[in-house]
Amino acid sequence: MNAKLSHHQQGPDTEAAVFDERSGSLAERLLFRHRAVVIALCALVSIFLGLQATKLHLNAAFEKMIPVDHPYIQNYFKYRGQLGESSNTLRIAVIPTHGTIYNAKYLDTLKKINDELFLIKHVDRAYMKSLWTPATRWIGVTADGFDGGPVIPDDYNGSAASLEQVKHNVERSGEIGRLVAANMHSSVILLPLQDGATAKGAEPIDYQALSQQLEQIRKKYESKDIKIRISGFAKVVGDLIDGLKLMQIFFGVTLTICAAVLLWYTRCIRSTALVISCSLVAVVWLLGLLPLLGFDLDPYSILVPFLVFAIGLSHGAQKMNGIMQETGRGADKIVAARQTFRRLFRTGLMALTTDAVGFAVLMVVHIPVIQDLALTATLGVMALILSNLVLLPILLSYTGVSRRAAAREAEAAKIDMTDAQHLRHPIWAFLDHFTQARWAGTAIVVALILGSYGYVVGSKVKVGDLDPGAPELRPDSRYNLDNDFMVTNYASSSDKYVVMVKTPRYYCANYDTLVKVDALEAKLQQLPGVVSTSSLAGLSKQASAGMNEGSMAWYGLPRNQGLLNAIITRAPRELFNQDCDLMTVNVYLKDHKADTLNRVVNLVDSFAAANNSDKIQFMSAAGNAGIAAATNIVVEKANTEMLMLVYAAVIVLCYLTFRSWRAVVCTVLPLMLTSTLCQALMVNLGIGLKVATLPVIALGVGIGVDYSLYILSITLANLRQGHALTNAYYAALLSTGKVVILTGITLGIAVATWALSPIKFQADMGILLAFMFIWNMLGALILTPALARVLLAPAHEPRPNMVAVSD
Amino acid sequence: MRPSLPTCEMLTMTLLTHIQSPRRRNRLATLTAIGLGLCVQAGTVYSAAPLSKLYEQPSITSQLATKSLMLDVADTGSRLVAVGERGFILLSDDRGHSWRQVQAPVSVTLTRVAFADAQQGWAVGHAGVILHTVDGGLTWHKQLDGITIANLDLAQAQADFAADPSKRNTRALRGAKRLVADGPDKPLLDIHFFNAQHGIVLGAYGLALETLDGGQHWHSIRDRIDNPYGFHLYKLAELDGKLFICGEQGLLLRSSDNGQHFTALQSPSQGTLFGMLTTKTGGLLAYGLKGVIYLSEDGGDSWQQIENSLPATLTAGRRLHDGSLLLVDEAGRRLLSRDNGHSFQASSLDNPTYLTGLVQTGDSGLVLTSLRGPIHLASSDNNNKEPGQ
Asked: What is the CATH number of domain A427-460+660-798?
């Protein structure tokens, strides 16, 4: 007695000529009875959201990349108004191609650039600094007394004498290594920016426009005599946004690859076009929803449309394949569509819901860009439920698939099904081996070894940026070359960690306070990676020499409180606040690698623990490096938290789908192996765990679970009908498994093309996602049946009186 | 909160000092401005008596010590000893090629170091500290600090006043009391040992101390020095049995009685003289602020100005083994004279930095102290690279 092996869950007699209109779920009947309405509604929504999508803006905001709830950031937010210098500062180096900065033409150009930059929107003009700003002063003592003035004197006229004067003033201004390079071959304009994060009520910065303005200035003033180099967060974002425009090309490439592979597989232009269009519809809806909800697309969330498209394609291909098989068996197009809807809607819905929940879990990471990404991805997946699970079958019910393609498919299926030994097709035959105990055991042992390797190596994953400069961009990008220049020529690099020192009111220049600050500085200066430090203590020591005719014999903290009080009246405002109850210790770092930051964080924390009292508190952290340090801490914590939640969500949803914990294990273990190996890959490729890479594993799990769901749901249904595992699995391979391989490889290749992106983190994400797509596919095809052999087969092993297919 | 009294009193004193010196009108104006700021600030800025005692805190060990500000270097005969910021003391047993840090009992800036012989040496610095070593610089202990100095000063002034309550002694007594009230806030700026027993230490605001027993006891000799405005004293030099002191605002003093009395000379300079050097022909060079160099060949009675190409403050000088004279300045230049101080030729370091002191090593190399730590120059580097710059 042969049990009839079915390709699908319900296993009704699909070849029945008569189709009962009233069969199927309420949803199915409702949707298919009003097909025209559904299509019209979708068309209307697409037009409306399509129009909205044109308003979508590319941007990135400084405050969005900050972990807003971390104590360091809370400290920063609490005092940022009093910190003087913004963390969001641009540094523009103006470099004469030959000679020193002391030539009239150079200084003239510098003045013009200075004046033009001054007018740029969002510049915090009060704190802008260059040789030409009035705040740049020298202090000195002459035989005639104590003197001071602007570095470029009021009566500057470009003459040799004036230039000599400027040179002299620069030398006694204390700006060498800060505003002027130590070798005198360049000087810098510091351009602090004001945005929502640094000043209340300021509107968000349009970094794209800002970056363009800077590029215009660069273009206007660069000549054979002058070179300009720019560094700072705002420029990074500007360059990123420029790089994002290239993403359109990548999107196009992905699209083409996917379409070509799909077409090759189906040989049916009609259905290929439909699958791609439906996935694109979801992307359009998503892009339309974003501006409607008030979101921008930032460099991180720009990858979400890709993912949505990819996921859509995977589900669409399943639907199309289903309909093709139905049609091949002779069903008419409506019946084929309804059957497929019936068969795969539940699985598809569960898979997409799992995706959506998996992405939504990223919301626990209290970094706004990641939350935005989570929201964007969740929205996109929900759009897919409508576009690919509902709209696509309905559209296919009108268009049908090409007869030829369907006939081909049916022919192939027939041949495969009659291939009882499963030997006909080498791939299927190979995969089928994993349902045998010996192969299954081997696969599980290999997986265990790989898993242990991944765990050991992956646990060494470094948090934060591992490369100097802007790791978002390539090491040889213009920005990173500019940044190298700054680091090489200026002591105060662009990586600044700011320790805030809180004292009682009017206590900031107190001798005891400064002694403690000086002690902290002495420790910080000794850390590898610290280039220099600056604070009121350091300034007081210099001023002590300065007030004694520049004699270094006086270099040291003046013990006389009166003298200290006099010094702070002349100190630059970025070192302390108006009420003299807060000052900053600026720590300039060689880079913002995780190790460098950790050393500073640990030192400051232990120093604070040993020295904090009611008179003085040392607090981390402001400055871009301080914020990066807080981000690292949050990212590291979030990584574990996020993975646990993603897996919890996947486990719950898989259980709901399968109602079998054994099946859940078969699904989840392969995913875990992939996640573990992905971390090991990050270690091997030198990719750090950071805001950009944190979501990759969650995204990978979300997408990977689809594969398992499609394969296991069919396998399980067949098992439950009493078929042997080998046959159950073989049937699953023939229906959904093919498409899993198809989409897994296609998407893997498509995202792997991102590796060519000029944006480093997108390249990293591309590599990691491609790895996860392909490994998850392999996991679903190899490890899932192997685990099923161990866990599922015994429970469902056919009774002796129920022999499996044996013609 | 009211301004604390010592603060404003000190300020008033400084202002008065300068008012009494009519040629410093500009300086007065600036100081008044600072002073006003100071008194206003003092009205708001908290100013309790400091608790931190860097002059009692052992120096930290730092791998940056050899790259930190070093202010002076001395040769014990077998070892070089350099001193600088944060109480850093560096030793070199290989003529300046490599350096190691030894601990000082204080964390204040050390300004000068001198050795009477291979074992016995002294270092002086901020907060009035005097450190002593008896093992060639390996270990140091504190002989004196600013608190004791103020008390010594007061004791001397009280004794003088008791003996003769003249106007001068009254003022000296008032000054000494103020010194005690100020606390240890004044740096010592020079140390000179005639032998292992007899030494003189000079400092800011006219501080001057003498020991006759190798530093076990010190006494104030402020009253022997003709320095009514309390100018800073930067350097003591010995020439043909006469002693000379130079200091702030061109102060020049001479003692012909082995340091019993120092009388003011007619100074050629209005700017501070940071150092002096004796030539092998009996001349005396004084140099200082903005690169001025003066030469006297008659024991300080008359002076002629020597040309210097750059107005960069000269900070230190030495007579080398061959009798040539070498000065260093804040711009990282060395000025060499082979004609007993009548003319100088400048050469720059490859990587200029503020220079503070120098010593010639046994192999005719040079060790300079600088803002970036000790700099070793082999004897071949010692030639003028950019003559006449």
From this structure: 1.20.1640.10
Q: Which residues of A touch B (CB under 8 A)?
A: 142-147, 171, 504-507, 509-512, 515-516, 519, 522, 525-526, 541, 548-563, 565-566, 568-569, 580
DSSP state of A202: P
- Token pair for residue B238? 């010995």
CB contact (8 A) between residue A552 and residue B356: yes
Claim to verify: residue B23 and residue B134 sit in the same structural domain: no
Q: B277 is in which domain, residue-wise?
A: 64-382
Cβ A554–B187 below 8 Å, yes or no? Answer: yes
- Per-residue pLDDT tens for A115-126? 999 998 888 888
Show residues of chain B in contact with A506, CB under 8 Å.
Answer: 1, 44-46
Asked whether residue B21 falls in the same domain as residue B113, the answer is no
- Which residues in chain A have their CB less than 8 angstroms from residue B371's CB? 552
Contact call for A562 and B24, based on CB within 8 A: no
| ipTM entry | 0.86
B318-354 tens-digit pLDDT: 999 999 999 999 988 999 999 999 999 999 888 888 9
Closest-CA distance of chain B to residue A91, Å? 25
A245, pLDDT greater than 90: no
Q: Looking at the domain assignment, is residue B284 inside a domain?
A: yes
User: Domain check: are B302 and B218 in the same one?
Assistant: yes
B37, A145: Cβ pair inside 8 Å?
no
Nearest CA to A341 among A407, A282, A385? A385
- Nearest CA-CA distance, residue A163 and chain B, Å: 16
Does residue B218 share a domain with residue B272? yes
Tell me which residue in A526, A559, A566 faces B185 most closely, judged by beta carbons: A559
Q: With 60 as the cut, is the pLDDT of residue A12 above it? A: no
> In the structure encoding, which two tokens stand for residue A760, read together?
């480093």
Contact A773, A747 (CB under 8 A): yes
Q: Of all residues in chain A, what percent carry a pLDDT higher than 70? A: 91
Q: Based on the domain organization, do B311 and B342 belong to the same domain?
A: yes
- Per the CB < 8 Å rule, is A549 touching B63? no
CB contact under 8 A, B45 and A511: no
Task: State whether A146 and B85 contact (CB < 8 Å).
Answer: no
The verdict on B19 and B160 lying in the same domain is no
The answer to which of A442-451, A741-750, B171-180 has the lowest mean pLDDT is A741-750
The reply to whether residue A565 touches residue B189, judged by beta carbons under 8 angstroms, is: no
Q: What value does the mean pLDDT take over residues A499-523?
A: 90
- For the residues B302-314, what does the mean pLDDT come to? 91
3-state secondary structure string across A454-518 = HHHHHCCCCECECCCCCCCECCCCHHHHHHHHHHHHCCCCCEEEEEEEECCCCCCCCHHHHHHHH
Asked whether residue B275 falls in the same domain as residue B319, the answer is: yes
pLDDT digits (tens, 9 = 90+) for A485-494: 887 888 666 6
Q: Do domains A24-50+246-405 and A427-460+660-798 have the same CATH topology?
A: yes
Query: Residues B107, B223: one domain?
Result: yes
Residue B20 CB contacts under 8 Å (≥ 6 apart), including other chains: B228, B229
Distance CA A691, CA A369 (A): 8
Q: Is residue B235 part of a domain?
A: yes
Average pLDDT estimate for A347-366: 84
B52 contacts on A by Cβ (under 8 Å): 511-512, 515-516
Instruction: Please give the model's pTM, rounded to 2 decimal places.
Output: 0.76
Nearest Cα residue to B90 out of B72, B116, B115 = B72
Six-digit token string for A12: 């009704």
Count of pairs with CB atoms under 8 A, one residue in A, one in B: 143
Chain B interface disruption, residue of A565, A568, A577, most B CBs within 10 A: A565
Residue of A nearest to B36 (CA): A566
CATH fold for domain A24-50+246-405: Multidrug efflux transporter AcrB transmembrane fold (1.20.1640)
Task: Kindly identify which residue of chain A lies nearest to residue B274, measuring between CA atoms.
Answer: A551
Nearest to A338 by CA among A37, A40, A38, A19: A19
Nearest residue to A402 (alpha-carbon basis) of A273, A275, A270 = A270
Q: How is chain A split into domains, by residue range?
A: 24-50+246-405, 68-76+491-629, 89-192+206-238, 427-460+660-798
Structurally, chain B folds into a number of domains equal to 2
Say if B329 falls within a structural domain: yes
